[in-house]
Amino acid sequence: MAAEHWGRRPRDWAELAEPSNHELFAQVLRRLRVAPGTRLLDVGCGSGYALRMAAERGAIVTGLDITAELLAIARERVPSATLVAAGMDSLPFPSGRFDVVVGFNAFQFADDPLVAVAEAARVARVHGLVAATTFAEPERNESTALHLALEPLRASASGRSGEVARHLPYALSSAGGLERLLSAAGLTVVERGEVPVVWAHASADEAVRAVLASGGGAMAIDAAGPEAARAALADAVRPFVAPDGRVTMHNVFRYAIGRRDDRQPQARPRPSGTPRAGGRAG
Length: 282
Hints:
By secondary structure, the chain is α/β, with parallel strands linked by helices. Helices cover 39% and strands 22% of the residues. Strands 3-2-1-4-5-7-6 form a 7-stranded mixed beta sheet. It is globular, with a radius of gyration of 18 Å.
């Protein structure tokens, strides 16, 4: 999934999509004990919503994303942040730079998630922490209905179901998936948990716009056109619309936290392809 897909509707992503995961960001930052002086890197920082939350806790924050349009909004949100345009598969930082590295709903969009997490581990200091989050299983998330609504549009264009499946954001969603990934990258898993997250929108139109602003939404538009993508999402969101027009979808996210225990920087793995953009569960 290329950077251009995440940059098509950056304001909608920043204002309608990323804030939906506020409780997830808050819970993980608490579990990481982010405090004044914490040197934090947000990998796949998007438009900087979680980065701002970390800065408000006093952290010295750095954000990395491959999408220039989202980074421009992050600069507005967090003027004090160091922001870097780069992919997550080869981080442009020296080993041991950060106390905490977070990948909020990002590592599943890496060209190779193991390479991305190993890079996160490399740039964490000894005894530093790396946190990863993702959706729980698709059937436990009501918003899955919206992602599935776009799948036939992409399938009709590509004709290759295996390629389409990669666009769904559940690659790491199986039980223990995050823990296995962190362990494979040489980290010691010290905590894991789940966070219920309610996606609430003032209207069906806002809910549809939030999904269209994601990388998967952009790819569906490329495949079938904006009207077809919007119509498919409007049908899918209808069961979640209350009589007053508001939309509520109940989701469950997983998180896992790993500690770097080694005394030497990890070897930089060889990236297996072109870096992909970081995401926020799109």
